[in-house]
Design a protein that fits this description.
With 334 residues, this protein is of the alpha+beta class. 41% of the residues lie in helices and 19% in strands. Helix 1 packs parallel to helix 4, helix 2 runs antiparallel to helix 4 and helix 5 crosses helix 11. Bound molecules: phenylalanine. Phenylalanine binds next to strand 8 and strand 9.
Length: 334
Amino acid sequence: LETKATEELAVCSDENSLKAWNTKYFGDRGEIPAALKLVGTLPPAERKGYGQEANRVKVALSTAYESAFGKAKEAALLASLNENPLDITLPGRSPAKGGLHVATRVMREIYSIFSDMGFQIFRSREVEDDQTNFELLNMPAHHPARDMWDTFHTKTPGVLLRTHTSPGQIHVMKEFCPQPIRAVLPGFCYRYEAITPRSEIQFEQVEGLVVGPNVTMTDLKGTITTFARRLFGEERQIRIRSSYFPFTEPSIEVDIDWPKEDPNADRLTKGTGWLEIMGAGMIHPTVLRNGGYDPDQVSGFAFGLGPQRITMLKYGIDDIRQFWANDLRFLEQF
Ligand code: PHE
């Protein structure tokens, strides 16, 4: 039995034939159990010798089977690896991670500062009408101040690309009147200007708008100071200069001081130590009225800041055209 079984085992070439062999010899009706049962039929004197021999054969065959089965399994694995040479032990390739555009990052930082101060964030349209972009902001047709904003007009008379986010003031006031307002309106603006390292035809602005009883210039100053210190550091000083916008009265321009240690300080501040970050002022009574409010009951302030400007300061970027050039070498630095 042992010789026959061993010979048969040797020619089993795969797992299936090995299993068949196992059933034939070790299965319930296999030859080994049958041989073991014979012990009972033998004369007592032969039983011990027979039993020992049968057990030895059983152990030897089952050991031989285990080792043959192990080898067949390994061979099958090897064959499948050769057939399909995929090395699952190699470390995976990590997918390239996208990043947020530097402009988006700074915008989000600005939103979070203003929302901490209780401002809501609004969107307003980029394609505007002349009325909202100019007239309702206290600039009737032919008003000379319109020259401050070189405008992209569309072929439809009276429809243009907004030159600033200030028309959003009108939309928000009309929607919220007579409630008090504390809102920021971020978004793109367009100006028909020569493209230079300092100015693009498209850029972002963040408009701020506060309307309510007893809103004063002090509130404006406090808001701007808090904003500048959160964004640029606690030690930051602001400076306010008198200015002119048709939709605010009085109008101001706000500068922040720039550390002299910055190698770019002189270039940025032109030696004055101060850098302009926004236009602002108390909302003109005519504009409040155009938004539906009674200037005798409420007052308000507004500001318009340029996030690209701020980002250029923060990161030492010297060419505004980089923002929209889609150059990965630039974008991946942030
Ligand atoms: N809209 C002005 C500009 O584009 C900025 C501004 C906003 C000034 C709000 C005053 C109040 O230059």
